[in-house]
C-alpha cells in the first residue's frame, strides 16, 4: 500500500502545529480524518511518528526523520504543478548577488531548478550586504540581485517583490504566552528578547517597535539565525522573525511555537532588483521570467500560495 499526498499533508500540518484539533481546524477537516491518516502512515512505515501527550502531539525521532522527506515531497509536487515548461535552448551568463537570508533560506532550491530549466545559463553568485549589492548593481558588477526589497534605499534600483513572509513571535514549547487568547508587543516587551541582526534585521525590527511605543528587553544581539532558534527553543528568550526562516525544531530537537501579534508588524518581502536604467539582457530576462512564473503568475490562478 502506498501513502497518499493527503496523508503527507495531514502529517505535516500536525507536526508543525503540535495538536490534531488545531491542525484539523486549519485544514477545515475532521479530527478523525487526521487521526486516520497518521495511523495509516504509521502502519505503512512500521514506526510511531508521534508521541501522544496531554499537551498534544510530539514527533518521535522517526517522525522528525520522516518530516524532512514529507517537506521534500510536498515541495516537489508544488513545483510540478506551478512550473511552466522551460526554454532549454537558452544560453548566457549572469552575475547574481544575494543577501545572507536569501542565500541561506530561499535561493538554493531555485538555483537547482534554474539549472534544470536553463542548463546553458552560467550564473556567478555573490553573497553580499545590501549596501554592496546596491552599489554593485549601479556600477555594473552585478546584473541582478535577489534581496529583501523592503531594505533597498537607492532610487536608481528597480525592485520587484515576489512574495512577503509574515513575521511572527517565536516561543519555546509551553511558554505562558501560548495560552493567552491574544498577544501584543507590550506582552513581548516583558520577555527576554533575542535580536537577530543579519540583513539589517535589527534596524527593521526597531522601526515597528518604536512605532508601537514599546522597547524590547534584548539579552543578545546575534547574526546567527540558528543561535536564535536554539535559544528560543531552550527557553532563554523569545524573538520575532519571518516564516521564511522558521523551522518547528531547533538543532537540539526542541520545538519552537509561533504566534501572530495584534500589533502591526510588517512582513519581510523578498524579490528581484536591478539597475533601473539598464536594458535587460536575454539572461536577465530569463532569470526574471523564471521567478515571475514561479511566484507571480500562480497567484492569479491558485490560492495555494
Automatic annotation (TrEMBL):
Family note: Belongs to the LysR transcriptional regulatory family.
Highest taxon listed in the record's lineage: Bacteria
Taxonomic placement: Bacteria, Pseudomonadati, Pseudomonadota, Gammaproteobacteria, Pseudomonadales
Gene Ontology CC: protein-DNA complex
Domain HTH lysR-type: 3-60
Alphabetical keyword list: DNA-binding, Transcription, Transcription regulation
Keyword DNA-binding: yes
SUPFAM superfamilies referenced in this protein's UniProt entry, alphabetically: Periplasmic binding protein-like II (SSF53850), Winged helix' DNA-binding domain (SSF46785)
Biological source species: Pseudomonas oryzihabitans
Protein name as catalogued: DNA-binding transcriptional LysR family regulator
Pfam families cross-referenced by the UniProt entry: HTH_1, LysR_substrate
GO molecular function: DNA binding; DNA-binding transcription factor activity
InterPro entries (UniProt xref): LysR_HTH_N, LysR_subst-bd, WH-like_DNA-bd_sf, WH_DNA-bd_sf
Amino acid at each position: 500500500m502506498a501513502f497518499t499526498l493527503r496523508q503527507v499533508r495531514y502529517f505535516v500540518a500536525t507536526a508543525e502545529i503540535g495538536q490534531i484539533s488545531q491542525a484539523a481546524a486549519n485544514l477545515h477537516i475532521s479530527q478523525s480524518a487526521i487521526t486516520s491518516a497518521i495511523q495509516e502512515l504509521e502502519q505503512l512505515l512500521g514506526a510511531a511518528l508521534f508521541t501522544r501527550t496531554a499537551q498534544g502531539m510530539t514527533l518521535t525521532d522517526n517522525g522528525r526523520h520522516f518530516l524532512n522527506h514529507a517537506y521534500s515531497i510536498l515541495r516537489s509536487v508544488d513545483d510540478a504543478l506551478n512550473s511552466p515548461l522551460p526554454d532549454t535552448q537558452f544560453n548566457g551568463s549572469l552575475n547574481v548577488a544575494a543577501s545572507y537570508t536569501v542565500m541561506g533560506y530561499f535561493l538554493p532550491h531555485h538555483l537547482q531548478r534554474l539549472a534544470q530549466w536553463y542548463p546553458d545559463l552560467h550564473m556567478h553568485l555573490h553573497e553580499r550586504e545590501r549596501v554592496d549589492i546596491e552599489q554593485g548593481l549601479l556600477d555594473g558588477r552585478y546584473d541582478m540581485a535577489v534581496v529583501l526589497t523592503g531594505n533597498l534605499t537607492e532610487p536608481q534600483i528597480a525592485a520587484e517583490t515576489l512574495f512577503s513572509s509574515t513575521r511572527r513571535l517565536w516561543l519555546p514549547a509551553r511558554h505562558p504566552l501560548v495560552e493567552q487568547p491574544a498577544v501584543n508587543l507590550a506582552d513581548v516587551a516583558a520577555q527576554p528578547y533575542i535580536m537577530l541582526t543579519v540583513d539589517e534585521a535589527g534596524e527593521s525590527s526597531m522601526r515597528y517597535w518604536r512605532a508601537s511605543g514599546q522597547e524590547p528587553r534584548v539579552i543578545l544581539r546575534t547574526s546567527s539565525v540558528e543561535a536564535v532558534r536554539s535559544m528560543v527553543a531552550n527557553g532563554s528568550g523569545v524573538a520575532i522573525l519571518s516564516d521564511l526562516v522558521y523551522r518547528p525544531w531547533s538543532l537540539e530537537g526542541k520545538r519552537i511555537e509561533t504566534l501572530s501579534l495584534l500589533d502591526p508588524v510588517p512582513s519581510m518581502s523578498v524579490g528581484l532588483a536591478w539597475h533601473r536604467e539598464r536594458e535587460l539582457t536575454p539572461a536577465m530576462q530569463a532569470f526574471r521570467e523564471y521567478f515571475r512564473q514561479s511566484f507571480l503568475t500562480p497567484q492569479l490562478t491558485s490560492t495555494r500560495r
